[in-house]
């Protein structure tokens, strides 16, 4: 494949529409439309997988998502600000969305892509141990979040429900936690 032109169709601060012009393997001209968060830093965002030490539970959030016109179960997440490390962004986002604080960083993934047919957005999974009392007082006005703490048994019950919308990463990690009692 030979991408010979990327045309930015929109100009927004956090997400834009790009039309890529390319030649396929037969030399035929093609175009591909995708959403881009592309900036100089990678990954674009952090997804925090928190385990509450005192409660011995995995922490997830139930958050209203406009594109779904409903609530989705996911993990706290957010964009990495200029000059921030993944760990700094993870600490900030976990606190802002759940009121919980990071006690220990367990594991950090490299940049990973969850929907590369639609977007070039990359994230880093940050597995952490956390502590504190959950609250949503630091949520932005555009965030409608409920913090949930799940035991292994509760995670198993949760993933079996067909009336819950899940973020793909969350479903995979909850499935592992339900089966093994471990998040990593």
Question: Would you kindly provide a written description of the structure presented here, covering whatever features stand out?
Answer:
It is a single chain. The protein folds into 2 domains: 2-36, no CATH class; 45-180, Nucleoside Triphosphate Pyrophosphohydrolase (Alpha-Beta Complex), CATH 3.90.79. Helices cover 19% and strands 40% of the residues. It is built from 3 helices and 11 strands; from the N terminus they run βββββββαβββαβα. The chain has helices at residues 86-98, 152-160, 168-180, and strands at 2-8, 16-23, 29-36, 45-52, 57-65, 70-74, 77-79, 101-108, 123-131, 145-150, 165-166. The strands form 2 sheets. Strands 4, 5, 6, 7, 8, 9, 10 and 11 form an 8-stranded mixed β-sheet that branches. A 3-stranded antiparallel β-sheet has the order 1-2-3, with no helix packed on it. Helix 2 packs across helix 3. 27% of the residues are buried. Its cofactor is Mg(2+). It catalyses: GDP-alpha-D-mannose + H2O = alpha-D-mannose 1-phosphate + GMP + 2 H(+). One of its GO terms (biological process) is ribose phosphate metabolic process. This is GDP-mannose pyrophosphatase.
């Amino acid at each position: 494949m030979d991408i010979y032109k990327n045309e930015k169709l929109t100009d927004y601060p956090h997400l834009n529409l790009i039309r890529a012009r390319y030649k396929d393997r037969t030399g035929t001209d093609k175009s591909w439309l995708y959403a881009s968060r592309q900036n100089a830093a990678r990954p674009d965002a952090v997804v925090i997988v928190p385990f509450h030490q005192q409660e011995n539970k995995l922490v997830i959030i139930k958050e209203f998502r406009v594109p779904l016109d409903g609530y989705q179960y996911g993990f706290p997440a957010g964009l990495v600000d200029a000059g921030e490390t993944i760990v700094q962004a993870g600490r900030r986002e976990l606190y802002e969305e759940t009121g919980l604080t990071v006690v220990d960083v367990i594991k950090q993934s490299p940049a990973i892509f969850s929907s590369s047919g639609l977007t070039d957005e990359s994230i880093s999974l940050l597995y952490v141990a956390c502590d504190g009392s959950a609250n949503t007082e630091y949520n932005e006005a555009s965030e409608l979040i409920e913090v949930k703490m799940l035991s292994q048994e509760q995670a198993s019950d949760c993933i079996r429900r067909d009336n819950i919308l899940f973020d793909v990463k969350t479903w995979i990690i909850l499935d592992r936690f339900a089966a093994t009692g471990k998040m990593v």
